[in-house]
Design a protein that fits this description.
Blueprint: H1 11-14, H2 21-30, E1 35-39, E2 43-44, H3 56-69, E3 75-80, E4 83-88, H4 90-98, E5 103-108, H5 113-126, H6 132-146, H7 150-156, H8 161-169, H9 175-182, H10 188-194, H11 200-213, H12 217-228, H13 243-260, E6 264-268, E7 274-278, H14 283-293
Parallel strand pairs: 2-4, 3-5
Antiparallel strand pairs: 1-5, 3-4, 6-7
Helix pairs in contact: 3-4, 5-6, 6-8, 7-8, 10-12
Length: 294
Amino acid sequence: MAGNKKHGLGHGLDVLIPPTEEEEKEIIEKSSGGITELPISEVEPNRDQPRKKFDEDALQELTESIKKHGIIQPLLVQKKGDYYEIIAGERRWRAAKNAELEKVPVIIMELPDQEKYEVSLIENIQRENLNPIEEAEAYQQLIETYHLKQDEIAEKVSKSRTAITNSLRLLKLDERVRQMVIDDMISTGHARALLGIDDAEEQYKFAQRIFDEKLSVRDVEKEIRKLNQKPEKKPEKAKPVSEQLQTIYSELEEKLKQSLGTKVKITAKDSEHGKLEIEYYSAEELENIINKLQ
């Protein structure tokens, strides 16, 4: 066990999944009284438990297994006033209640609140029990309540910092879209693509389209990229040149011809833009024109 330990939680993480005898002994040594049994009525879930939704079919399967074989892996609990709060094993507790057990095997631990929450979070992540939104909310609670940084969370749950960041980004989704992720109506990939839509109502409408039309993640990404492309600026319409302005330009042409001694033409594109053309017919004439302009 010593050579295969995960880091970040101290003794809390070591007691999560103990399949070997050596690990079992280590759990007993770290608990206040080893494995014991408690009336199921004295054991209650942790209200801050990251996992909020339980698969009913899987829970029924576990219930049937417990009816036949009992609870093989004890629940981790902590004394809390007049009852014992579950640190890890709420699913087993629910199945035990369904199986109408009167007592459940437990290991009584003494953990600080932060470590208790981390143990519960990691157990659920390791068992893939959390849906993407529950997982993101659990990370957010570690940040807000216990002031952990994303890289610290990443180390504790053995994931990359990028994975934590991407998970937390899901909490920026509209609440209705988050519920659709929880209900498996759209995938996490769809949800991440929808983050490209800022407007909450548009985001929700698009999410409904994904579900109704069975759009792939790639299709969604393409459509959202098109939506976010800025429309090309239409060139402003040229202001027409009035007859009065044309007259003024003609008079200016004549004055310049007389001043420069060569042909001059003013071509107006609109009332504010145009070009001035001065003709010359030799290098000497060009030099004379430049001298006059200077």
